[in-house]
Write a structure and sequence with these properties.
By secondary structure, this protein is mostly beta strands. It has a domain of 113 residues. Helix content is 7%, strand content 26%. The protein has two helices and 16 strands. It has a five-stranded antiparallel sheet with strand order 8-9-16-15-14, covered by helices on one side. A four-stranded mixed sheet has the order 10-6-7-11. The termini are far apart.
Amino acid sequence: MKKLFIVTLAALGMLACSENGPSSTTGALPGKFSVSASKQVQFSPGNLQYNAGAKTWRFAINQYDTIGSQSSNIYDGWIDLYGWGTGNNPTNANVSAQDYTFVDWGANTIPYYGIQTGSWRTLSKDEWVYLFCNRAKADSLFAMGSVNGVNGVILLPDNYWKNPAGVTLVVSSSYGLTMNGDNYDDKTNDHFIDNKLTINQWYLLENNGAVFLPAAGIRSSNQDISSINSGGYYWSSTPKDDFSAYALVFTSESLAPQSKATRNLGLSVRLVR
């Protein structure tokens, strides 16, 4: 049985952008994404990673890179799954969910990208919901698929544009992924096969502002990693109650931007600025 929280899925499009790759001045990817009626953000170049031995933060080299099962070794080597709000204590493995209070990971200095402390931040629950459900043409600006064999969700910038030469990106809503309230779901299809992109095809999209959220899995309170390449779990900055917080959760058949997870679970973090 698949682990999930809610959901369904949607679509695709694209935007013309003159800048390729992360900005040399801001470190952000070029695409701009509305997260409220008056606010746009740009995403970091990849998921956030931490090395406990060196006490060093970095972004994944490629957007589709994940640590995988090695992220269970929270005190040795690189990890990319964290308990909620552990910006000041990324290796916190306390089993008591009440002991997790939110400190933004973006408050840290991340070398090479946004060297200034506090340059980055975590999206709130309402911002994840707006991004996937409420911005203009929201259901046609993301799709499920795979990049270089890694499953996940492809996000497209606000300006809707046609596919670049050499790439045909198909919206998952065309295959039955349907918005239900603030969630998407389709229990009859595997939407990770909607779009299978090679590295070269992905670079064409990325250079035009696309963002990829890999299905990096989830770490349980006893350090076991599960759902690698079958589920994506991304923290928001918003608490749900004393024991849980809101998160974006997706599987091959659903997407829920306001799901919830127990605070001591290890989830992915993708920062914005």
